[in-house]
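Troubleshooting entry. The earlier prediction with NDP gave an output that would not parse, so I re-checked the input for stray whitespace and re-submitted. Clean input:
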Amino acid sequence: MKAFVMKKIGEVGWVEKPVPECGPLDALVKPIALAPCTSDVHTVWEGAVGERTNLTLGHEGVGQVYEVGSLVKDFKPGDKVIIPAITPDWNSLAAQAGYSMHSGGILGGWKFSNVADGLFGEIALVNDADGNLAPLPEGLDPADAAMLSDMVPTGFHASELAGVQYGDKVVVIGIGPVGLMGVAGAVLKGASHVYAVGTRPNCIKVAREYGATDIISYKEGPIDEQILAKTGGEGVDRVLIAGGNNDTFAEAVRMLRPGGAIGNVNYLGEGEFIRIPRVDWGVGMGHKTIAGGLMPGGRLRMQKLASLLETGRLDTSKLITHRFEGFDKIEEALMLMKDKPRDLIKPIVMVES
Ligand code: NDP
Ligand code: ZN
């Protein structure tokens, strides 16, 4: 079968691979809709997780079950499924401790396009199928549902990490597809003010549609200064980070009230350290929490988030700006993600209709 891979740091391409062997708990899935991710860009072009050889990329998609292992109970060939980007080992101690995303070691639930072949193959292997696959609800567009693999659960996780409460003032740094889901998630959790930070016009328009009350450009001066000016010097309750760089944390700490929290889901691709401003952090006693987390994956989360699409509480179609037809368009879609044209939010590749 054909697979689109990271050949080594800085190089991608197509290779032939054998069809994966389906273990007793696994499923083999043929893709229907696939999306490339900014994380693939960090992994390939920044070498953020280290060297990889002929690793199949991709971790966002909807597919059709092709084969199931002998112990899989809930799925059969032909079923249409949502595949989460994070596919933990559900019988692990980490999962029992409530941190399934770290099963098998830190970030161990992130298998696709990291430590195992991802979804950009003609057939992909999904571990722990009953625990990780979710049935695609009748009537949901597979392209919209593919946003449930990673964009929705990651963006929403920023709000979970920061503990957004009713009436909170929330800054969302970065309004690419992840940050936009940060905006939507904060609004669903009851934020009163959402200050969205970004500059791409499409992203700004969609951020407003998802409920951002203010737009801030990081190109027009430090974000913290702009936020402090807008809040009469008081700062905000929560800062969600879905973009920026290692210095963004310093800005986030400065704009946060005592008792506030930062929820980071940004993938820090470069540098060795993150610096926290000592005085703004209350010389170590400011009750300004900094949390960062890999989004939880798995079936239940997929099902719950899909129910928001079913009832119309969340519309992920706004994220999709570029649509490609055919498996061989994966490369073009990924390069788009790398080059980030101004009108891009998220591309999708439809493999079958
Ligand atoms: P995008 O590149 O589409 O968006 C990044 C956003 O950050 C843009 O709005 C951009 O603004 C803004 N930005 C860029 N530089 C700065 C800066 N200096 N200060 C403030 N904002 C800035 O990324 P995605 O939405 O696709 O992904 C966001 C991050 O989330 C990535 O790092 C990705 O790898 C990570 N991620 C993490 C996951 C997890 O489980 N934790 C899972 C999936 C993704 P502009 O409008 O000007 O472009
Ligand atoms: Zn992703």
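This one parsed fine. The chain has eleven helices and 16 strands.
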